[in-house]
Amino acid sequence: MDKEIFLEQKYIKTKNKYRKIVTYADGENLLRVKHEQIVSLLKKECSNSIFAKAYMEHSSIVKNAKAHMYNDIFLYFDVKDFFSSINHNYLIERLYKELSKNNNVSIHSCSKLVELCSVADKGLPLGLVTSPILSNIYMKEFDNILYGKLKKMNLDNVIYTRYADDIVISYKADAINMDVYKEVKERVYMCLKQVHLRSNEKKERIYDIKKGGHVKITGINVVLENDNYRKLTVGRKKKDSLYNEAILYYLQQKKDSQEALAIKGNESFILSVEGKEYEKCYSESMKNVIKQHGFETLHDMIQALEY
User: Fold this and answer.
1) pLDDT tens digits for 186-198?
2) Angle 184-178-165 (CA atoms, 0-180°, nearest 5)?
């Protein structure tokens, strides 16, 4: 199959750089259909890493943050150029190990599968439906080995999760111990090296929640309040943005279905983290604006948005 006629390359701007995305060409796309069949096969035949929280059914950034909620010390690592650095030979080995458990497959067939899901001799392209599940298969043994090494350190309630290329390790302790940090770092580096990857040192961090009062994990804030009470929040900025977007949309004459659905989707996400109590952050004057339009709560207004 000539993959080039079925794919397009685009560049999207992120915070600090342009990122190359490979997408399927418009129209009926045989390659996308084939890739979707591969994803279905892999979901059926391959077991999931219990430490992976991205690209998984019934998982989310909220569950990823919640796993670490009651610990004190938080260590962050980021896999440098994760998707583009994936080694095909190692990926083929991991695929063969997973698929050969219950099937009569060969290394050659696994190699052909990786070739069909790639556009170069190294890495997995961002944008193809197969890349997320293949990346989790690639990292499954890494997850297991790293967690085993962390457990041997006898840290109190050590928790490890990986959200794609974001690694979070947390544990209970009275304060940060730099010797412990260095040992954890060495183990992370060693395990990454074994799977042909490395850490992005610029993104490595360590936090003590008892000093800062909160930590952010994959975009979700874990907040420490009185008597060691913990809660998850999305942050004030997101809630103020939702308020402003909803009020402006309600007042505008021309309605747009995509805009209304985006507002409803944003609120749904906030509700999944904080519940209806998210509105407690709004001032009395903000709440009065809602009431002036005939609604008791912002939630009621958003539910009534027309499009």
Assistant:
1) 999 999 999 999 9
2) 40
